[in-house]
Design brief:
The protein is mainly alpha-helical and 195 residues long. The chain has one domain. Helix content is 54%, strand content 5%. The strands form two sheets. Strands 1-2 form a two-stranded parallel ribbon. A two-stranded antiparallel sheet has the order 3-4. Helix 1 runs parallel beside helix 7 and helix 5 packs antiparallel against helix 7. The chain starts with a helix and ends with a helix.
Length: 195
């Protein structure tokens, strides 16, 4: 949700910037852009695509780690472009906390209680994967690098229950920055793409 919002807002901001400057909205030549699709696929199939969610349930941690590694590789080969510093740092933060905590993103029981208020019998348990998500419920005392876990939630008035991490925020900033920059002047684009 946070990433999707940053993509929509970044695209809108970039298009508005291009329109205001009376120039076309352009793209950059990114290295190994196919890594995004290949990297996103395991995560999508394991956590968002109903026909394969159950099938890949036992392999969820492998899917998440491999997905994170491929996306991190994409960010690293494009680090000459400034927004990829935020994207890369966010992906690295998520990868480290996921890797150090058994292959899934840790989430504290207190955060889960805010996401799923009311009786929780049978819905989730400490030390278990949270439903069919990428999250694994761990108390803060048992979480390595707990400050990088899925700890933030959206305001209640938004009526959308999702937790996200510092890494997710950095990824969202990088995505917004990248899409906004595409509406800039050509000279700025050339400097941006050359490093």
């Amino acid at each position: 949700m946070v990433l999707l919002a940053s993509i929509v807002l970044g695209l809108a901001a970039g298009l508005a910037r291009a329109w205001k400057g009376k120039r076309p909205y352009q793209t950059y030549d990114l290295k190994y852009s196919w890594l995004v699709l290949v990297g996103f696929a395991p995560q999508f199939l394991a956590f968002n695509f109903r026909p394969t969610e159950m099938l890949l349930s036992k392999w969820a941690s492998v899917a998440l780690i491999s997905s994170q590694l491929l996306l991190l590789a994409f960010a690293l080969v494009n680090l000459k472009k400034a927004p990829f510093w935020a994207l890369g740092l966010g992906l690295l933060s998520n990868f480290i906390v996921i890797f150090l905590n058994g292959g899934l993103m840790p989430i504290q029981p207190e955060v889960v209680q805010k996401l799923i208020p009311g009786p929780s019998i049978g819905l989730w348990a400490i030390g278990e994967r949270l439903l069919m998500t990428k999250d694994f419920v761990l108390p803060i005392a048992d979480t390595r690098l707990w400050f990088l876990d899925d700890r933030f939630i959206l305001p209640a008035w938004m009526n959308y229950h999702v937790a996200f991490s510092v890494g997710d925020v950095l990824i969202a900033i990088g995505a917004f920055w990248l899409l906004w920059s595409l509406g800039g002047p050509n000279k700025e684009k050339k400097e941006f793409s050359n490093g």
